[in-house]
Amino acid sequence: PSSNQLPENILRFYIYFSSPMDEATVSEAVSLNDMAGDEVEGVFLRNSNELWSPDKTRLTLIMDPGRVKTGLAASKIYGSAIKSGKHYTLAVGTEAQDIFGCPLEAKFSKTFEVSGRDESAPDPLLWSIAAPNIGSVDRLRIKMNEMIDHVSLAYRIRVFSSSGNRIPGKIYLGFEEREWYFTPSDPWGEEEYTIKIDPVLEDVSGNRMMGLFDQPLDRSSEIQPEQVHIRFQALSEADLD
Q1: Residue 217: its pLDDT value, please?
Q2: pLDDT tier at 73 (50, 70, 90 boundaries)?
């Protein structure tokens, strides 16, 4: 996440590289350090199949769920991986190499402060919509109630026409992944549009509209959660008066 203040129960970090990377060297070069510069052990979920994008330019780091969720053995024994009120630095050393054997030109680091646990789910009822103008290709803006996982934002919100067709365009993310912008390929018309939100949209702590990451889902019902629909119309000159 782009914010410099992150919740204690953050679930993921994403690291983007400018070239396809050699997985083994990156794994050894990534660390999370405390303010004394000491590496914090047992923070990330380590497995043989690390989560890389197909082009090897994005690495997804998942915090150990056993220390993110309360009540589990690891959480009881070791506590949260990161502590509220403290500062940490996520670092990638120059040992990391791309697939051509070229090392990073310089060490990368991101320092952040840890806030309390995020125990709220994304709630579209708390979002605000800024509608664009009719006949323009102005951006549609959604301002959300909390930081949302940026990869989730890229795939879980779409805009549809009154006939049910998906509107083509480009997505942009705003301040601390709390804002979602959409620029259509063609000008907005007078019809009613629908914003469809997939219920598996996640915030930075893995909370979904259907439930919190720290709580078990109710699997007693076979009814699957439905998409959330928000309808809007582009503004006319009369609306602006």
Answers
A1: 54
A2: low
